[in-house]
Design goal:
The protein is an all-alpha fold. The protein is 76% helix and 0% strand. It has three domains: 103 residues, no CATH class; 47 residues; 89 residues, no CATH class. Helix 2 crosses helix 4.
Length: 248
């Protein structure tokens, strides 16, 4: 029998059902012994091995599981890679789960209500009044890494549509000015620049010609290996842009 793919689950399950499956498998995997890995779960749930990994990532990124479960999954994945590499440090697994955690932090920060984001940012700006960064994250029930993403989002929220269009247009038309130089000129982190450009593209705040100019600029400023990631990323952005336009 052909194993189910992640795409098939996306198309045949509701979001609630998909989240329930992802959570169940992620928790079971995190609590199981080392021998219960992808092959076991693939057979147990009639899913492909690729689907198994995507479900773990889905549960992690979308904040369906706790930090403790995420930690256990990352440790187990690293342990399995170490065993297959005769005890060598699991570099690939370590780097991969670091990236997944970053996506999780971004998802959490960008899922918060705008009012909460603004409140956190204001409290952070006034931290000199006595509250520490540690106390602030404890107060809002977030991690310091999520706080960093919240501050990025707060900065993006402070930009009007007109300012975003203007910024994206200037960025697209000045390929000779590096992103780092733009960061200095506008006094904002490069992370904020990335999110402003993403918002401009996905939410159709700029014309198609500007999108293509930003795309070509991105390709020009990377190597051959990086170009593949740029093409993949912009393909994703354009799909999100098309969906946004259809729904608005």
């Amino acid at each position: 029998m052909k194993k189910r793919s992640f795409t098939e689950l996306e198309h045949t399950k509701t979001q609630e059902e998909l989240e329930a499956i992802a959570k169940k498998i992620a928790v079971e995997y995190s609590e199981s012994d080392a021998q219960f890995a992808r092959t076991y779960f693939s057979e147990q749930y009639n899913i492909s091995k690729d689907c198994f990994y995507k479900l773990l990532e889905y549960a992690t990124i979308r904040n369906i599981i706790s930090e403790e479960v995420v930690n256990n999954i990352a440790l187990k994945a690293s342990g399995n890679q170490r065993n297959h590499a005769n005890g060598a440090f699991p570099v690939t697994s370590f780097l991969h789960w670091n990236e997944v955690r970053k996506e999780r932090n971004t998802y959490i920060a960008w899922s918060l209500p705008p009012e909460t984001v603004k409140s956190i940012a204001e409290d952070f700006e006034n931290a000199s009044d006595g509250i520490s960064k540690e106390e602030l994250v404890s107060l809002y029930g977030i991690s310091t890494m999520v706080l960093d993403e919240v501050l990025v989002r707060a900065k993006v929220l402070s930009y009007s549509d007109e300012r975003i269009r203007d910024f994206a247009g200037k960025f697209a038309s000045c390929p000779q000015i590096s992103k780092r130089q733009f960061s200095v000129m506008y006094k904002i982190p490069t992370r904020v620049i990335d999110e402003l450009l993403k918002k401009a593209i996905v939410e159709n705040k700029v014309e198609d010609t500007i999108v293509e100019m930003i795309y070509k600029r991105s390709l020009q400023n990377t190597n051959e290996a990086g170009a593949k990631n740029v093409k993949k990323f912009f393909t994703k952005l354009k799909k999100e842009r098309k969906k946004y336009i259809q729904n608005n």
